[in-house]
Design brief:
The protein is an alpha+beta fold. It has one domain. It has 6 helices and 14 strands. The strands form 3 sheets. Strands 3, 4, 5, 6, 10, 11 and 12 form a 7-stranded antiparallel sheet that branches. Helix 2 crosses helix 4 and helix 4 packs antiparallel against helix 5. The longest helix is centred in the last third of the chain and has 20 residues. About 50% of the residues are buried.
Length: about 350
């Protein structure tokens, strides 16, 4: 599940740990962005993409349990003296989209740090200013409530002192823009999107290391799992509800019972579990994206996703005292939509 915080494993190799997933409308296109390797773990992060890893965007269509499209990005070797790597982008569809041994179709090959185009996609990857924003002090108060099954102690966080804890940090952004002429990502298609990192194994296969759909899942529900031993990262989204639905529902219902302002805490807990599982980001292709109170339809770089997730989990409006103006200088309306530091 998506992760930003400082953990031993993230320090060892943040290149394998996903910070955020964004899905939104471009210019006659769908934009997919995966951020990895945040400098919140320290200033000396390893450069570029992991040379033995795959970075994959997965697309489910029409509520299907399994993906019909995988866009696979991989680097060919470590970065050179200038920090550049050659990357490849392959497309896998149908049964191949779920097959780690399948090769798929090569769409484009080229260097990082430059726009590369081919096969109906534009791709760019490099270090960027992290557009994610949150005050971690607020998160810690909510972590404590969810972990202990208690009401949130509002006295522990002062919204008047809110700050963006991720100011001046950077991430490695992987940006893939797919034309609306794509046979699957076409206007009107109802899709579910998630992303994953996979690492080559000594046996010749691939191990899923990290995955992301909705933002804030790991920080809210598994904050103490610093070694990522929880099987949620190994699972396919189709297994989420059975694997962790009761756990999530029980955590939410305990907080709501302590707060005393929801008539049926257990029922609401299961509503949240079914809303968040399977952990894929739903989006109608060709429509304006928003991750907001009125609904979730993709996620833009401007959306204050933590505020929405906190409010959903706590069953009441939970303002975060920040907003889209917090990161407006860290996003643009033109490809690649992110901003170099």
């Amino acid at each position: 599940m998506s992760h930003h915080l400082d953990t031993p494993l993230a320090r060892q190799n943040g290149r394998l740990y996903i910070d955020d997933l964004y899905v939104f409308q471009g210019d006659g296109s769908t934009v997919l962005i995966m951020d990895v390797n945040s400098t919140i773990t320290g200033p000396d992060v390893q450069a570029g993409l992991h040379p033995e890893a795959r970075y994959e965007f997965k697309v489910h269509v029409g509520g299907e349990a399994f993906e019909s499209l995988t866009l696979r990005i991989a680097a060919e070797g470590e970065p050179d003296a200038q920090g550049r790597q050659q990357i490849t982008v392959h497309s896998l569809t149908g049964d191949e989209a779920r097959d780690d041994s399948a090769t798929g179709t090569l769409l484009v090959r080229g260097p990082t740090g430059e726009q590369i185009s081919g096969g109906g996609v534009r791709v760019w990857t490099d270090r960027v200013a992290d557009p994610f924003y949150i005050d971690l002090d607020q998160l810690f108060t909510i972590n404590a409530a969810v972990a202990k099954g208690t009401a949130v102690d509002s006295a522990k966080w002062d919204p008047k002192q809110a700050k963006n804890s991720f100011a001046n940090t950077t991430v490695q952004a992987i940006v893939v823009e797919v034309s609306h002429e794509h046979p699957i990502l076409r206007p009107g298609a109802q899709v579910g999107v998630w992303c994953s990192t996979k690492l080559a194994t000594d046996a010749g296969g691939w191990r899923q290391i990290n995955r992301a759909g909705h933002p804030m899942m790991w920080p809210i529900f598994w904050p103490t799992d610093t070694d990522f031993s929880n099987p949620a990262n190994d699972r396919h989204p189709s297994e989420d509800l059975e694997g962790a639905g009761k756990y999530l529902a029980d955590q939410v219902s305990a907080v709501l019972a302590a707060q005393g302002d929801v008539a049926d805490p257990q029922g609401y807990g299961w509503t949240v579990a079914r809303r968040l599982f399977p952990d894929v980001l739903h989006y109608e292709v060709g429509t304006p994206a928003t991750f907001g109170f009125a609904g979730i339809n993709g996620r833009t770089l401007a959306d204050f996703a933590p505020e929405v997730m906190f409010s959903l989990v706590l069953g009441r409006a939970t303002p975060g005292a920040l907003g889209p103006s917090t990161n407006e200088q860290l996003r643009t309306s033109a490809f690649p939509y992110v901003v170099k530091p």
